[in-house]
Amino acid sequence: MESILFLACVEADGSLAKAAREALSAAKNLAAGLGGAPLVVGLIGAEVQSAANALAACGAARFLGVAGAEFAPSRYTTDTAAATALAKAAGATIVVAPASSRTNRCLAGAAQRLGGRVDSHATSIAAAADGKISLTRWYYRQRMEGVLTRTARPWVVLLESGCAPAYAGVPGTTTVEAVAVELPALRTTVTGVRAPASDAQTIRPDAKLLFVAGAGWTKKQADGQVHATEAEQLILGFLASAKASLGSTKSLVDLSGEGQAVLKFMSHLNQVGQTGSTPRHPKGLATCCHGEEPHTVGWRFINERRAINLNAACSWAQGKADVLYVADAFDVMRKVNALLSSG
Amino acid sequence: MPSVFHIVVCGSIVPDPLQTLEPITTPTGPALKNELMLPAVLDPWAWHALFEAANLAKNNPGSKVWLVALGPKAKLQQVMMSVAQKAPFELVVIDGPASGFTESAEVASELAAAITSIAGLDKTKLLLFGGWESASRGAGTTLPMVGERLGITDQFQGVDQISVQPDGSFEVLERIEGGKHQVSTCAGAPALLGWATGNLPEPPNNPQVGMANMRTLMPALQKAKPAKVTNTGLAYASVALPKQRRETRIVKDMPADEIAQEIVAWIRAD
Amino acid sequence: MTQDSVSESPVVDRQSMAVDIVCVGFGPATAGFLTALSKKLVNPDGTPIAESAAMPGMPPQVIAYERADDVGFGVSGVVTPARSIKAAFPGLDPAQIPMAAPVKTEKVAYLLDPVGASRRSLALRTADGVLKLFKGKHHAIELPWIPPFLAKHDGLVLSMGQFMQWVGGQVMGSGTVQVWPSMPVAGALVEDNKVVGIRLVDQGVEKNGAATGAFMPGMDIRAALTVIGDGPVGAVGQQLDRELGLPKDHHVHDWAVGMKFVIDLPESCTLEPGTVLHTFGYPEPEIFGFLYVHPGRIASLGIFVPSWFDSPVRTAYRYLQHWMLHPWIWRHIEGGTLRSWGAKTLQESGRRGEPHLVGDGFARIGEGSGSTNVLTGSGVDEAWATGTLLAEAVTELLKQGKPFTRENLESTYVARRRASWVDAEGRVAERARDGFQRGVVTGLIGMGLAGLTGGRLRAPGKPMPPHKRLPTIEAFYRGRISAEEIAKIRAECLAKGTPLHLALMDRAGWPAIPLDGKLLVSHQDALLMGGKVQAPGGYADHVVFPFPAICATCDQRTCVEVCSGQAIAHGPDGVPVFDREKCIHCGACLWNCARERPDGSGRTVLEFRAGSGGLHSAEN
How many CA atoms lie within 13 A of C242 on its CB side? Predict the structure, then answer.
């Protein structure tokens, strides 16, 4: 009989992120699929009671918590010790956790300590009628999708956001069993978060739209000139008025290293695709790109995709974008910005 | 007084980025079609980790860099001829698959054993580097497990910067959600850093570095031990390319004004 | 020392390194050289045959620098007799080399024009009319017999990329030689008329060569012997040809652009591995085609566009697509999928293009040394053989402790070369294609005569350099497209910055290519999906236009039309612009420039230097 632990780190305000509530739905669904396998909730944070209360109606057999000031920050030493202790206390054979920078960092190490196995970036985990559990994840930078099963336990699973509906049960009151964790001397101190100035903040994970800029923005245009300044204004203007997140192709980001006409606000953090991120947004608009990066790799988890490209025969956009506008992105984005700013 | 670090970079090879990849099923599990024919490169994030390691070693005299790779020997040999011109390092090779479909826990076990057997490696000076994910498995699970096996409990992932202080402690910037960085300080080695892109440009090819590396490259390849990677307990039901091919509507000869209107309407629609 | 092809950047901390033998380029010639040499550098008892002069106490230090980003990124549409390769690897099992297959079936076909757009002479049109009476199946007449000089039986079908990857592994595995990719060689170091090594290209520079913060001047690699195997458009070969001139009556006026696809054949295709198909006659009479079948339902196919095809609008890509669509070919490949794409240019003057093979401190091998046999259409085998001959010579000199002087290299390498089958067969081939200067029919007759009489008979013809033979676009299309219409097309294309060839070919009656995104893809998609073309940053542009005023007045701009990667485009002020990220280093622009420099050197106004990046496919 499997025993499932839903594991999550509590936010600074004591709440659970949407991704965590999604992973809880997946864990509940898995437990149900296994004919009612016991589900345990395990929480880590400075204070976990209010988050546990929010999940009171989720049907968990037990609520376990590792709490205290040491467990407030996202830190490998403390998080790995806490996750290991929770999994042991729950007697878990399967651990389902939401993927985040915090859990991604600590749960492979926890799996090692538990003598188990781990799968990160899972897009689904579910039980078939025969009780066999299948996990889906992508390989080779989102190029191919694999479905796998494991016999080793415990099996730690990090579920990507956007792959299950968020749990939305009625809050209540529940008792959290505190799990003791023995910590070594701490050698790492989290001192804070460094964020770009708000006007340079171009990455917005919750935005509805991902705007992908390709190297074409910094190339010579029809008049034989480079218009990097206008490109910057057009892109920043669009991001501001459409509240979009900015992704870029590798070639555009790399140009910054060559001392060429570049978009100053662009950094490697913006890169999508190979050695970049694979963000999830409902919509994506790609401009001045011609290549596999935006259309295959970086776009894998964008639902609706449109592209503006001068090449009608672009085989990378065809079959991968819903709409391909054969046009000059400078012209179109000038007009788009005008329309957006006029309300 | 600069610190002395023993920096071990874990990294292997992946297909050159623009190659068309197709999965096939073999008796030992999934693999890439024509895998050994595809040109390969050092895994991009491990590549960055190697640059950072070389830079750190250069700025902290007495430090040393090892590159530990589990991959098919012949392919590694070829890729090393590009890699070895970039940064000085000593190579340690384990001959085995560089496939994304291998079990990360088993790979971690092999890498940890290889690192443990490096002569002259001082674990109190150890900085374990690698990419925060590979471009093959794309999991980010191998390196933390290597760290655990080596007893390293200060681990950082998605690292873009390390700043070493005179006392050997260092500040680390890790990528977190929303294009931000978490800032931490660590008392010093031993520690593990899974690198994202970092800020260093790719170093130029340096023939002298290549010549110096050559003295250890070929012997390392010749004495490479075979890896025991069996994917025990792991079975793939399927590996497939996404089937969905979108019906792309191609809009030609539409004035920019109309395209803009259509795009704005699309953005505003729920 | 001449500075025009080596770095002109300020000399800041330029480093220098000494080795014994440095090789420029890792193609089949250098591979043959290193394969043979690596086996000879060590005595049977494990001791080196000589001590390194550069690193006393060590065995001779032998290094090769290859421009491309990997040793497997070379291009050739290879079917080869493989005599020299088989000799180097006794008992060679082709199954060891991915994509290799022994030649099984050979066919040669004359392709008729099924679309009516081909530019055929009256003689050819008459001949076509007669041939059509024989109802050639699929608009083609298969030759009942393959002339022995063209036959490749007992040979191998290879992928140059896979073969070079395999050989690279073999020679590196020996531990006695080193092959470093992604390292272009800017030029030879020449002191007192001796070649004393090479200079690598500068890194950390802008596209115009200006130093950036990461500037690293190209290192000097000093060596007792420089082996030049950098092919027909290599920077070092070009430099030596300029400085030393060519031997009397030698020239390199003949060349061709070879462009190829590697494809997955459709399930329905019944062609066996080892099948070799050659065509002539279509899409233009001057264009030759090939299709070679590898194991695993893979084929290499492509065309050669030769120098004697006098169109100034000589786009190989569009012609390749029309050739693929010819019914005799299309029936085999319809439904296939593009795997790879690439192009290279070939020195087709053969032995008559042979430069000074040796001098103090240097020796030349391979295609750039005039080894290609233009009668049999064979180059890889010959190139490899020249490398093997040099390895024997070098071993002899090393063992005797003799220096690499002109005299010593003459008496060892050149003497071996003159006594070799490469030279003997090259002499037979030397003038075999001269007839093509007068027309395709004359050329074919001449080739047949030369082939069947051992070179004693041939058709006459005088090869000319491109800038002396390329007609204007108006002259080429006279009678088909009016000058006024050409002017209109030119203006439209210049405004858009696009080449003229698509519009001109459309107008000349060539049907549109039915792009399917799979096998028939746009030119740019061929670069990305097929060639995987990339260029690392930090290197200067390697195609430059040092005489912009002359370019601005050129109305042919064959460099734009011929560019295999669409990397050269019309610039705003009439001077072409170069996009390094699309260049595949085929060198077609160098051969095709139609304007001469005013300095009387005979050189044209386009410079093709050493550069990095290019194809990233290992299947070509």
Answer: 21
